[in-house]
Specification:
single chain; 177 residues; alpha/beta; Rossmann fold; 14% strand; globular
């Protein structure tokens, strides 16, 4: 089963550009770089034989999947699904019930969802996950979720520290830890 939810991000992009033109840099524009041609450019980059970072990340993920099998994972939430291979690799090697792919780029969701071959239930959400409270409203975060923040995902965030702090604060209060 696969569910695909897409959102038009043009107004959001225009608002972000206008804010930056007026000196408000609180929301970065790099998260929009994977729209349209940017998504295709990203796929071209990771398929370039000279680009070794991607290949090294895949090797590292293959090596840690056995550790992930030692924890009880109900669902994998992939924040920034990219072309889908890393989420697919993890889900196919661990025991989990479902997968949620989240990306701000509708184009990356379309590419990633086509590439993924996992056999569990899959849901895709076109969303900006930098707002963890909004993410919770769209996905209903649960105990035993495994969150993937792989590759360029965090590098696309201007306020990486704030994003991780908000996730930490929200998840710990949500999970009552």
């Amino acid at each position: 089963m696969q569910e695909l939810v897409l959102v038009d991000r043009r107004e959001e992009l225009i608002t972000s550009i206008n804010k930056q033109l007026n000196g408000d840099y609180s929301k970065g524009l790099t998260s929009y770089s994977y729209l349209a041609q940017g998504a295709e450019d990203f796929i071209g980059l990771i398929n370039n034989p000279d680009y070794t970072s991607y290949k090294n990340e895949i090797i590292m993920l293959e090596e840690i999947c056995h550790l992930l099998n030692q924890i009880n994972v109900n669902r994998v939430i992939d924040l920034g699904i990219g072309e889908g291979a890393k989420g697919d690799l993890i889900v196919n090697r661990i025991r989990c019930n479902s997968y949620v792919g989240v990306d701000i780029s509708q184009d990356m969701i379309e590419i990633g969802s086509k590439n993924q071959k996992m056999k569990c239930n899959r849901i895709y959400r076109n969303a900006d996950f930098s707002n963890i409270k909004e993410l919770n409203e769209n996905i209903e975060l649960c105990e035993n979720d495994l969150y993937l923040l792989l590759g360029n995902t965090l590098a696309n965030e201007v306020n990486m520290k704030d994003l991780l702090g908000n996730m930490n604060e929200h998840l710990f209060s949500f999970l009552h830890i």
